[in-house]
Amino acid sequence: MAGTISRLPDVGWMLRPLTQIPGVRHAVVVSEDGLRMGHGSAEGLTGDVPQLDVAEAESLAAACAALTVTGQSTAALLFGEDAGVRQLMVESDKGFVLFTSAGQGASLGVATDMKADVGLVAQQMQLLVAKIGAHLSSRPRESMTSTS
């Protein structure tokens, strides 16, 4: 089998405007198949996860992709096959995680604490996607072909 595996560009630096919003802890950009394209954490964090390392960001990316697929399945069931998912939100005892579509084949995830203005965070996520969405997109993987 022959195929091409290309390295995804790290777009973590683009997340700085989000991680500067009060209450935002972490942000991650994810390809639709769950690969981390970039991540960032707010400065000066304390607590259980003061900074996302690469392994934690990759786990968050996989969870983001799984939730996005679940959201797409739910939307298709309720609104028809062509119903796309724009945003998802998970609320926990300690904060929120917001996911939004971030261009073709990519999603943006942001984790906040309980004090964050979730409406402001969602708005700023949309503004960031509108501003730099082309850089956040992930091209579909090339199909593997077998040569005999």
UniProtKB/TrEMBL annotation:
It comes from the Bacteria. SUPFAM superfamilies: Roadblock/LC7 domain. Pfam families: Robl_LC7 (PF03259). Residues 12-112 form the Roadblock/LAMTOR2 domain. InterPro entries: Mycobact_SerProt_Inhib_Rv3364c, Roadblock/LAMTOR2_dom. This is Roadblock/LAMTOR2 domain-containing protein.
